[in-house]
Design brief:
flat; single chain; alpha/beta; 4-stranded parallel beta sheet; 2 domains; Rossmann fold; 326 residues; 14 helices
Length: 326
Amino acid sequence: MAKRQSNISQSPHTTPLPEGCRHIRVLVEGYEDIAFWRGILDPYEDDYVRFEVSVPQREDLAKGKKTLLSQADMCNSGLIMCMDSDFDYLFADQTHDARIINASPYLFHTYVYSTENYLCYAPSLHNLCVKATKNDTHIFDFEDFFAEYSKAIYPAFVWYAYSAQISTPNIFPLQNFKNTVRLGYLDTERNGANTIVWLRKQVERRLQILEYEHPDIATRLGDFESLLHMRGVTPEQTYLFMHGHTLMDNVVSVVLSAVCHRLKNLSTTRIYNSDRTGLVLQNELSNYNNSLCNVRDALLFNENYKECFLYKKLQKDIEDFLQTNR
């Protein structure tokens, strides 16, 4: 039987390694994931191990999780793969992809739905606002808001995740889920309470439709919820497990924009209300505006998620691998 040929090119480390140092190649889903996984692996580099993160170099240019999983049998102590969990962590060994990931010591996944969920880790968002606006005033409690947001969307999330698990996504397609949980605006008064009330109404309308169209499925969700709870899903932390791009683009970006807008207004109001006048006032305003950065850029390079309980699971996986493959 002919030996299977690998589409993974062998690109050697371009700089000399210290004597006795291992070179471990790391393949990720796409170019946008390279910086994220480099940040994850950086703390583990020393004189004994170095990582090189890249995308698969294939003649057909294919990228993505399915491309990685199709070549999972190529992995070894010198070649590992890192990828988004999607729902594979939550579904345990109940799907084909989940079984592949869980069976291999050389495949690492995020545990949260995707890298975007880590970037949107609620306890880190105030610092992002400070970075973007240079204003450290606490006008919004992100942790409390995203706990309330998560509780509001939790029933819809259960429906969406279950339809994915039984491979019947037409029950609750991603676009319908996105339309249900997205935020069109954020009313920052009372820490977004009015927005949460509006969101709950959106979710309730969707649930009524789902329960009417699929009454048989509604009776099965209890056991599925128990499975989710065993994997760490609670109503207050649902946002960590939902579709990552929806969370980043249609929820967190909306919230950050609204909060940062208020913070920038506070800063400029303080400058206008100071004793400065004329050219000195204009220079102060210019200095402030020139110090600002784009909140989206701050979000994309966020690394303040490492206290997340799911990151601790990923951290242990990497440490176990390195310990086993010394």
